[in-house]
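dumping this here before i forget
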Amino acid sequence: MTPTTLMFTAHERKVLDFMAQGLDVQGLVRQGLYPSERAVWRGVTELGGALSGGEIVRWSRIVHLAVIHNVVTVRRTKSVILPEFQLDLLRALAAGLRLAEYADKSDDMILMEVKELLVLLCSRLSASGPANAVYRGHQAGLLTPDDPLRVTFGKGVSAWAAS
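structure:
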């Protein structure tokens, strides 16, 4: 994906930055960025649409797109080496896949195992959740703007790539 210049207000940039830092719906309300949880959902959905060309996308995908479009600044940290199965899940999160989708497309994993894999991934990256894991993946150099996000679903052969 080639980075493009998108225009966002200071408020929208702050929201995206806080999302990358791992704040959830309640956290965005507590920070005073939105008056209610409903307003958060509406606002974040609009931000996701602006970043994705009109699609409804998950928070982890929004963070990935915000980084790619240089809306959220990534401060590089020390490199992290992940086992291939954790890196594969990280790519899936950046692509916006739900954990259930990942499990369904995997021949060998059930949803509970994918959830456990997410816990391991977040622990390894010191992330608070999927969106924060994607941001930390960018910080560690595991995800890059030109990464095609090939997801193998544990099969070792590319089965799907995000556009």
